[in-house]
Amino acid sequence: MQKLSDILKTWLPAQWDALLQQYLPAAVLTDNFWSGRPGPCPVCGGNDRFTFDNKNGRGDWVCRRCNDGSPMAGDGIQLVCRVNRISYLELEAQLLGNAAPLVPQARPATAQRVAGRMSPEAKLLRVTKQWEHAKPLQAGDHAMRYLATRVPGLRAPRPVALRLAVQAYWHERAQIGRFPTIVAQFLLPDGRMATVHRTSLDPALPVKATVVSADGEILDAKRNDVSALPLSGGAVRLMPPRDGVLGVTEGLETAYAAHMLFGVPTWYCLNRVLLSKFVVPDGFGIHTVHIFADFDAVDPKTGKSPGMADALTLAKRLRAEGFKVQVHRPKIRGTDFCDEWKTSRQLGAITPAPMTA
User: In this structure, is residue 356 part of a structural domain?
Assistant: First the structure.
């Protein structure tokens, strides 16, 4: 008689899916189960400790505290046995004695995976939920106090592209903590949302959070979520263009500082590479673009300032497309316009440009 172990060697990922769908309760097989995000464990019942990663295509899973408080992992066979409290031999007898083959059913459309990774539909759902679960900024909230600290004297239209949420910070499948989080909506030139960028804030102070992993690594307080679409060409649209004029820069705080220094409505592109790929969207009547570059130190390998080089790349392309372009850089190498605004404020050398209401 053929052994189950021999049969399993021939199974395709869809057959492993079918095994789970047949033997696990429907309440377990939610969108979150298939998405690969941490959630409740169907074995021990603990919250946010179980992940169905399916890394080998065999129904693979891991629970951080399933084995008397210790990590536990396995494949779909082990998961089915543990959830149903049956032995391997009992499951083998059931599977080999079943005349009807396992037939895979469609996973929830919102959480399908392709080749072990999240599908574009699942990524879009995740990004959309991040945005929809965050709240619009309000005067005096944690995000507004942070921005006022980073860009002293800030006066600008309240951004519709920024929201505030309290989010868990995950690192290597472990939750480091929960932090107030600025959620920024990154839109492509055609208006589609491609990702959300998140800035974790200190729970008490108006500064970025200090996030430390279990082994003492200092983690970045700023990070993207998954990208539902390629990011090239997009930006976070902090404020509407005015009279056909728009500014673009790399980061959030730099965008607001440039706005204060020059009075130009400014968007930000997350980093210098995406800045170089920015595409002016249709429908705004934009004819003039101000590029606010970070004046980075010279890279010894290229002999160029990376921030300036990418800003000039963008300027060259936009001019070829018929736009009027002005490139601006801070006065001091190794700084950005956020640094320049703070210095100017301290020296009393700058009168803020007129702001829109």
Answer: no
